[in-house]
Amino acid sequence: MNKDQVEGKVKDVAGRVERQAGEWSNDPEKQAKGIAKQVEGKAQNSWGKAKEAAKDASKPPRSTSQEPETEESAPRRAER
Questions:
Q1: What does the buried/exposed string (b/e) look like for 57-75 if buried means 16 or more CB atoms within 10 Å of the residue's CB?
Q2: What separation in angstroms does the CA of 13 have from each of 25, 37, 76, 80?
Q3: Quick one: which of 8, 34, 7 has its CA closest to 20?
Q4: pLDDT in tens, the chain (80 residues)
Q5: Three-class HEC string of the chain
Q6: How many whole angstroms separate alpha carbon 32 and alpha carbon 19?
Q7: What angle do CA 49, 36, 44 make, to 5 degrees?
């Protein structure tokens, strides 16, 4: 998880709270501000996820073993 994902989630949750408070108090302006904050948070969270995916994609694949699997080292499979 990176900084954008964390900040985006915080903004999303804060926007939900503000929107809900606006609904309870019948304040359309507060509802609109909450919705805008939610959208901003979701966008920032998505941007953070995209950055994280790009970072992971640029890493070389991890191998579990340096040696190629041979018949002796391969796990035995149950025969039917």
A1: eeeeeeeeeeeeeeeeeee
A2: 18, 9, 50, 54
A3: 34
A4: 899 999 999 999 999 999 999 999 999 999 999 999 999 999 999 999 999 998 888 888 776 666 665 666 556 666 65
A5: CCHHHHHHHHHHHHHHHHHHHHHHCCCHHHHHHHHHHHHHHHHHHHHHHHHHHHHHHHCCCCCCCCCCCCCCCCCCCCCC
A6: 7
A7: 15
Instruction: Give the domain ranges of the chain.
Output: 3-12+22-55
Task: In whole angstroms, give the CA distance from residue 66 to residue 80.
Answer: 31
C-alpha to C-alpha distance for 42 and 37, rounded to whole angstroms:
9
What residue has token string 């507060």?
30
